[in-house]
Amino acid sequence: PTDYQHASTEQWLKWDKDHIWHPYSSVLNPPAMIPVVSAKGVRLTLADGRELIDGMSSWWSAIHGYNHPVLNTAAKAQLDDMSHVMFGGLTHPAAASLGKRLVDITPAPLTRVFISDSGSVAVEVAIKMALQYWYSVGQPTKTRLLALRNGYHGDTFGAMATCDPVTGMHHLFNKVLPEHLFAEAPQTAFGEQATDADMASIKTLLQNHHHELAAVILEPVVQGAGGMRFYGGDYLKQLRALCDEFDVLLIHDEIATGFGRSGKLFACEHAGISPDIMCVGKALTGGYLSLAATLCSEKIAQGICEGEAGVFMHGPTFMGNPLACSIANASIDLLLASDWQSNIQRIEAGLNAGLAAAANLNSVAAVRCLGGIGVIEMKAPVNMASLQARFIAKGIWIRPFGKLVYTMPPYIISDADLALLCQQMVAALAAEE
Ligand code: PLP
């Protein structure tokens, strides 16, 4: 089956059903997959010609919408030069300029950029940086991590070990994962000062375990896949001070929040602080290709390289892929050239107005919006298949999980499409009651 472009939809859907294992799915009872054949702007086109307004930005990534002429041009130009070349011993302008761009737009003192292929790997790299740093500076007992309850950092082993071991999706692997420490997530909402109660759990863990702690890792301001919860910058500010006091590194996972989604270019700006290590991914290439990066301060980089190994021990085959780097450069330029901050405010206002009606539904526990993210939390887990079918019938693409029905549309969505997206989300939920 090579000539898929000439195969009927039924034919390639059968290949898919027979052979492909989709994320978080069973091969015994495969979910009905929705065949998508093209995408432009905020619309996905299905095999039967129907169009859906995309409310997911392909899991936070397609911030400029699909098939963007500027990103297409960047990709084509790079393709003519070189689509890939190994990064060990060789370098190229697309990666070098991406490194400079990332350092320019992230807060000081982040100066070094380690490029990788996916968000999960960027987290692995961050964890390894923290561990190798302490080993190199003569504190090899500092090997544990402190993460937040409801956190999510990816599906690879190191990353899984920092996800909530109770409510998270990886508890099956708990026995073989390193045992890290978990603090209660802050309860105060975005915009509020952190209370003593918010700080108590993490402060106690830092006090009692700092000698064995390499780093605190968390998603700043927005806890994503672990519950779509928002909390305030003040918590981050107080935590930064605690990490300094107890000599524990701070890793921010900005894989979902990076590049404007929370209303700031990076969510740590809500707190006016900088982590020691920061992970970015998802929207880095505007959703075109898999690319991520782990940034660290000069202190960490120097510490690692002055240590026993003398080098940082990591090197993915596709590290610094030129095609992905060229698109990332173009995507960042496109974002910065736009009035993205006003645009996110516009989307936040549209989400607040459009999703408010959901709060009147009996099945809804809460509605909350921040930046380009709108969340409807249900009282009970949704019937995914039934709800998804309703969304599609109403012309929108939303993928709920558990009790969470949420949207983070591409930044280019028009007011009219945003209003329609919200209206249809609420209408589908009402029809499910
Ligand atoms: N960290 C956060 C906060 C995420 O939201 C995700 C993905 O959802 C990841 C890490 C993992 O990224 P990836 O799926 O690219 O491996």
Helix and strand topology:
Blueprint: H1 9-19, E1 36-40, E2 43-46, E3 51-54, H2 57-60, H3 69-81, H4 93-105, E4 110-116, H5 119-136, E5 144-148, H6 157-160, E6 181-183, H7 196-209, E7 213-218, E8 222-223, E9 229-230, H8 233-246, E10 249-253, E11 277-280, E12 292-297, H9 298-306, H10 322-337, H11 340-355, E13 364-370, E14 373-378, H12 384-393, E15 396-397, E16 404-407, H13 415-432
Helix pairs in contact: 3-10, 4-10, 5-9, 7-8, 11-13, 12-13
This protein binds pyridoxal-5'-phosphate (PLP).
Put the structure in a nutshell.
This protein is α/β, with parallel strands linked by helices. It has helices at residues 9-19, 57-60, 69-81, 93-105, 119-136, 157-160, 196-209, 233-246, 298-306, 322-337, 340-355, 384-393, 415-432; strands at 36-40, 43-46, 51-54, 110-116, 144-148, 181-183, 213-218, 222-223, 229-230, 249-253, 277-280, 292-297, 364-370, 373-378, 396-397, 404-407. It is 37% helix and 17% strand.
Describe the 3D structure:
This protein is α/β, with parallel strands linked by helices and about 425 residues long. It folds into two domains: about 35-65 and about 340-430, Aspartate Aminotransferase, domain 1; about 70-335, Aspartate Aminotransferase, domain 2 (3-Layer(aba) Sandwich). The protein is about 35% helix and about 15% strand. The chain has helices at about 10-20, 55-60, 70-80, 95-105, 120-135, 155-160, 195-210, 235-245, 300-305, 320-335, 340-355, 385-395, 415-430, and strands at about 35-40, 45, 50-55, 110-115, 145-150, 180-185, 215-220, 220-225, 230, 250-255, 275-280, 290-295, 365-370, 375-380, 395, 405. The strands form four sheets. It has a seven-stranded mixed sheet, sandwiched between helices. The chain has a four-stranded mixed sheet with strand order 1-2-3-15. Strand 8 and strand 9 form a beta hairpin. Helix 4 packs parallel to helix 10 and helix 5 (about 120-135) packs across helix 9. The chain starts with 8 loop residues before the first helix and ends with a helix. The model has no long low-confidence stretch (mean pLDDT about 95). Bound molecules: pyridoxal-5'-phosphate. Pyridoxal-5'-phosphate (PLP) binds near residues 59, 219 and 224.
